[in-house]
Design brief:
Shape of chain A: globular
Strand order of the largest sheet of chain A: 1-7-6-2-5-3-4
Number of strands of chain B: 2
Strand order of the largest sheet of chain B: 1-2
Largest interface: A-B, 20 and 25 residues
Number of strands of chain A: 7
Shape of chain B: globular
Number of helices of chain B: 11
Strand content of chain A: 15-25%
Helix content of chain A: 40-55%
Number of helices of chain A: 9
Number of domains of chain B: 1
Oligomer: heterodimer
Order of helices and strands of chain B: HHHHHHHHEEHHH
Chain lengths: ~210, ~325
């Protein structure tokens, strides 16, 4: 399955993503190539995940696994197969978070196995303009793997290519900005605050795409 | 081997010499950069190196298309127009409701270029400036959002005329019939348009760096100077005057008018696009071409020179064919 995933992402998805987004990337050399590592990005579109997978250096691609909502991505057999084998998601059962279940267990396993886990700490897709409240699950993961670098990534423009609720993707330039990694320092609030500041700093560097 | 030799033998001599000359200039640029880096070891030449590396790629793509013929040039310019329009519409202020209008604007690209493909000049002339001009705003009325309607409709039209209609004239040159006594074939016309336009960009930059003092439009382009503009104008005019007859059928008054006006059009395209970018609040239209910025940053002068070049040629030499 590994070759199939590579082929789909590199041969099919990469040219399509380039055509739809331009896929400008600033700071590509800051992307971690070895796990365990955590990527945190803002989230405004399904394009986010595809864009990140297609710009990732091929040699590390096998390790990159996006955390995704189990209730959405494991719905139906075809979707489930695609999510597991091509996207290689780490399922997060967000609907069972209140039931005392450890919804981060699959993410922990992936990190323990040396994977690079992509997390959208907003928990859901936003409007693509402002960063919403960040959920603290990523801090718990960072605390469990204090040696894993946490790399902030700002994805600009994907929310215009395919906003939440839209079905027709429209080509628009997107920019991926990769920042310097941060590490778990022992305090959850301080860690979350630093992560937010890093993301906001990257956002300030992004091209000013605004709706009229 | 015979196939390759035959392919090159069938090309106009002047075009091959021209392409060879461009490669020579580029090689020289690599040598000069290496020399500069050796003379000034503490200087940073990364941007210059990136720029030259990108030139190799751009020239390879254009040369391949020119040698392969009009279909290849047409496809290349469809891609160029698409990327330019995508850059423009991604930065221009449009409304969230207009996503499908953006899609419709992209669809105008294959239609406009199809008129070049079937060689219908009259239809090409009116398609974007008249019919798309009416249709897109009408399509916007279906969406029903009247807030910022005029500004958005104007933005779409500006993007289409600059990125698709004006750039398309460069590809249309390839459809000039061989019977028109072209010294280097239709590809020679396109080649010389690109050489004159880019040489003007480069020479304005070089003259500005060497002796530039008096600012020419400081509020739009703070780095542009009178010395750069005039030096570039004189150098490019001389280039057109001396090499124009090798690649185009121009002579006499037509050649003189081309030499005098093309560098001004190139400058005008450059600063007009700078004003648009300044309005939007960006320096580069994207990061597509390392060292140069976006495609629009590289093609801004061509947007103004392509139609002028086309029309001067047509008025003086090719009026029977369009």
């Amino acid at each position: 399955m590994r070759w199939l995933r590579r082929a789909v992402i590199v041969v099919i998805a990469r040219p399509i993503a380039r055509m739809f987004t331009g896929a400008d990337i600033i700071g590509r050399e800051k992307l971690p190539l070895k796990g365990p590592a955590i990527l945190v990005a803002n989230h405004s579109s399904h394009v986010d995940t595809v864009l990140l997978l297609t710009i990732y250096p091929s040699k590390a691609l096998d390790r990159v696994r996006p955390a995704a909502a189990a209730d959405y991505f494991l719905k139906g057999r075809l979707m489930s197969w695609f999510s597991r084998n091509i996207l290689a998601i780490v399922p997060v059962a967000r609907d069972r978070a209140g039931a005392g279940e450890d919804v981060l267990a699959p993410a922990r396993e992936a990190l323990a196995a040396g994977d690079i886990v992509l997390i959208f700490p907003e928990g859901t897709r936003g409007d693509g303009e402002e960063l919403t409240r960040l959920k603290s699950g990523v801090a718990r993961l960072a605390a469990a793997f204090p040696d894993a670098p946490v790399t902030p990534i700002w994805l600009q423009g994907a929310g215009r290519v395919l906003p939440k609720g839209a079905h027709m993707p429209v080509p628009m330039n997107c920019t991926v900005l990769v920042g310097d990694a941060i590490h778990w320092g022992g305090d959850r609030a301080a860690f979350m605050e630093e992560m937010r500041q890093r993301l906001e700093a990257l956002k300030a560097l992004a091209p000013p795409q605004r709706w009229a | 081997m015979d196939v390759i030799a035959g392919f090159f033998a069938a090309q106009p001599r002047a075009l091959l010499w021209g392409l060879g000359g461009v490669l020579g200039v580029l090689t020289l640029a690599v040598g000069v950069t290496g020399l500069l880096a050796r003379l000034r070891p503490d200087g940073d030449f990364t941007n210059l190196r990136q720029r030259i590396a990108s030139w190799w790629v751009m020239i390879a793509l254009l040369a391949a298309a020119l040698l392969l013929g009009w279909i290849a040039v047409l496809i290349l310019f469809v891609v160029i127009s698409f990327i330019a329009l995508r850059e423009f519409l991604s930065l221009a202020h449009i409304r969230p409701e207009d996503r499908l209008i953006v899609l419709a604007a992209y669809l105008c690209i294959p239609v406009s270029y199809a008129f070049i493909g079937i060689d219908r000049y009259g239809m090409y002339l009116v398609f974007i400036p008249v019919y798309v001009f009416m249709f897109l705003p009408f399509a916007m009325t279906w969406i029903g959002q009247t807030r910022a309607f005029l500004a958005t409709a104007a933005t779409f039209h500006w993007g289409l005329v600059t990125c698709v209609y004006n750039l398309g004239f460069a590809a249309f040159l390839m459809r000039t019939p061989a019977a028109a006594h072209l010294p280097a074939g239709p590809a020679g016309l396109v080649f010389f348009l690109l050489v004159a336009t880019e040489a003007n960009d480069v020479m304005q930059y070089v003259w500005g760096k060497l002796i530039g003092r008096r600012k020419i439009i400081p509020k739009v382009s703070p780095n542009k100077t009178w010395e750069g503009f005039l030096g570039g104008w004189a150098t490019t005019a001389a280039l057109i005057w001396f090499l124009g007859p090798v690649f185009t059928p121009l002579s006499g008054a037509g050649l003189a008018i081309m030499a005098a006006t093309l560098p001004i059009a190139g400058f005008a395209g450059d600063v007009t696009m700078s004003a648009v970018k300044r309005d939007i609040g960006v320096k580069d239209s994207s990061a597509l071409i390392p060292g140069h910025g976006g495609l629009l940053d590289r093609a801004d002068s061509l947007i103004f020179t392509a139609p002028l070049y086309f029309h001067i040629l047509m008025f003086f030499c090719l009026k029977d064919y369009f």
